[in-house]
Design brief:
Oligomer: single chain
Number of domains: 1
Order of helices and strands: HEEEEEEEHEEEHEHHE
Number of strands: 12
Strand content: 25-35%
Strand order of the largest sheet: 8-11-1-2-3-12
Helix content: 10-25%
Distance between the termini: 43 Å
Length: 232
């Protein structure tokens, strides 16, 4: 009888805790980043959905965070292009990816867009200039030490003759019913799969391997290198 007596309050407490966790961790918005590359065999492209979640916790000092994976474009012929989850501005910035769509929409439309309005944006907008994330290529996807930076304006220097970055775009997509956004009517989940393309991202040595890749590409350190490839 005592257990039955407490079932109601315990159920209410559980519902409050779960509801609060959903409030804290539900993305503020999601966006799809698409990378297109002109190759001698035609245009190759790939895209990935990223989720951006503002800090809604109770302790001071929290920050906005992104979830998702770097975008891997298979160019054929063992060539590839990877758009990292980082930007380069003297130092390697892991937070710029949080604001790509937020800044790309007003840059394209000339209209101010607030963070809270992002989930209501529609259409595809170009990602240009400083909003373009760091691009790298791997001569051997099994070897993080084979990484090389790809210039957005001169992809041929790293990829070879006939390769050119056609463009990068961002598109706001519905949040869906997080945390059950498994696809379809429930909403698009964040895209995963970079570890399947770059096998050294699996296992305990992933962070060290990621650091090796950034160093090989001539990129500055100072951050958790794994964040350039994947975010939980």
């Amino acid at each position: 009888m005592k257990f039955i007596k407490w079932m109601g309050p315990l159920g209410l407490l559980a519902a409050l805790v779960i509801g609060d966790q959903i409030r804290i961790n539900r993305p503020g918005h999601k966006y799809r980043m698409t990378v297109e590359v002109e190759t001698p065999e035609g245009v190759k492209s790939a895209s990935g959905v990223l989720a951006v979640t503002p800090y809604r916790g109770y302790s001071p000092g929290g920050t906005t965070r992104a979830s998702g994976d770097a975008v891997f474009v298979d160019l054929g012929g063992s060539k590839n292009l990877v758009a990292l989850l980082a930007h380069l501005d003297k130092t390697l910035d892991p937070d710029g990816i949080n604001y790509v769509a937020l800044r790309a929409y007003p840059a394209a439309t000339g209209k101010r867009v607030n963070f809270n309005d992002m989930s209501r944006q529609t259409g595809v907008v170009p990602v240009r200039g400083a909003l373009v994330p760091v691009l790298v290529t791997f001569a051997n996807t099994a070897d993080p030490g084979s990484a090389k930076v790809v210039s957005p304006d001169d992809a041929e220097a790293a990829l070879g003759k006939g390769y050119r970055l056609k463009g990068i775009t961002a598109e706001a997509v519905p949040n869906g019913f997080w945390p059950v956004d498994f696809g379809g009517v429930l909403g698009e989940p964040v895209t995963r799969g970079i570890a399947g393309r770059l096998p050294w991202l699996n296992g305990e040595g992933a962070s060290a391997a990621a650091a090796t890749a950034l160093k090989a590409a001539g990129l500055p350190g100072g951050i958790d290198a794994g964040l350039a490839f994947t975010r939980k």
